[in-house]
């Protein structure tokens, strides 16, 4: 899926994230995030904008209950609420700066998600989420079940799930992503690893094509905070349809 929108800010350069997402219930499912181009100074314009109740409802449905094209209904995918820790291992291409950015994303998610607390691990064998930031060919040779098909993209998240929960996620980050975009790509991909897809709403970091100056990459927008809170509510279960959980979505949307 490729969607582009015009950027009317002073900057002529923008981050493009285009994605192909496989929503079929296969293992592993793939969710590919792409960006090209460079970037300029980041300023936040939509991160703190309060979304309407209808926006929250519609965006959650789009992110969690629609296929990548937004044309077909699908069901919720998420980590089991009884899984108290999701262990994250950074494999290749880690830096002190990136690990700090990862810690910030995890801390933000842990504030919003009461059940699945993300923690870093140095033991790959126990990792639930693996991050690898190396060239695609190097990644593919090591993670043969989670191969990057488009090496020109900036990030790819693969999720693998059983009948009742997500069981593993592997995130590939391009080592050539400009440093001032890395936090945004990292936050976007880690959010995929929770079990959600894309939206066209520019108040969300989960837009497939993102202006570099419409989102503060170091925090979640109010809209994204609501989305993560809804998904992590333990009344929302893997396999649920919109009809199953519409009352819960409305409850958060009304806050
Ligand atoms: Zn994406």
Automatic annotation (TrEMBL):
Signal peptide range in chain numbering: 1-18
InterPro entries (UniProt xref): DUF2927, MetalloPept_cat_dom_sf
GO MF term set: metalloendopeptidase activity; zinc ion binding
Keyword field: Signal
Keyword Signal appears in the UniProt entry: yes
PROSITE patterns referenced in this protein's UniProt entry, alphabetically: PROKAR_LIPOPROTEIN
Pfam families cross-referenced by the UniProt entry: DUF2927 (PF11150)
GO CC, alphabetical: extracellular matrix
Bias type Low complexity, positions: 30-47
Keyword Signal: yes
UniProt protein name: Peptidase metallopeptidase domain-containing protein
A single BP term in Gene Ontology: proteolysis
Coiled-coil parts of chain: none
Region called Disordered, residue ranges: 27-47
Organism ancestry: Bacteria, Pseudomonadati, Bacteroidota, Cytophagia, Cytophagales
């Amino acid at each position: 899926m490729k969607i582009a929108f015009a950027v009317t800010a002073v900057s002529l350069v923008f981050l493009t994230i285009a994605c192909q997402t496989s929503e079929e219930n296969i293992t592993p499912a793939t969710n590919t995030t792409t960006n090209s181009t460079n970037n300029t100074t980041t300023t936040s314009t939509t991160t703190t904008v309060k979304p309407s109740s209808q926006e929250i409802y519609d965006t959650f449905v789009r992110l969690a209950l629609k296929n990548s094209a937004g044309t077909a209904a699908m069901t919720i995918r998420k980590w089991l609420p009884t899984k108290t820790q999701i262990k994250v291992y950074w494999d290749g291409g880690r830096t002190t700066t990136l690990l700090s950015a990862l810690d910030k994303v995890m801390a933000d998610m842990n504030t919003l998600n009461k059940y699945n607390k993300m923690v870093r691990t140095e033991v790959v064998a126990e990792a639930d989420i693996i991050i690898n930031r190396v060239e695609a060919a190097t990644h593919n040779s090591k993670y043969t079940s989670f191969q990057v098909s488009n090496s020109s993209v900036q990030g790819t998240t693969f999720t693998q799930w059983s009948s009742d929960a997500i069981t593993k996620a592997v995130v590939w980050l391009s080592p050539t992503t400009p440093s001032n975009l890395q936090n945004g790509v990292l936050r976007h991909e880690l959010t995929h690893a929770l079990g959600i897809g894309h939206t066209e709403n520019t108040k969300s970091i989960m837009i497939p094509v993102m202006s570099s100056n419409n989102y503060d990459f170091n925090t979640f927008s109010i809209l994204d905070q609501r989305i993560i809170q809804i998904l992590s509510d333990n009344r929302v279960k893997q396999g649920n349809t919109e009809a199953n959980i519409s009352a819960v979505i409305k409850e958060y949307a009304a806050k």
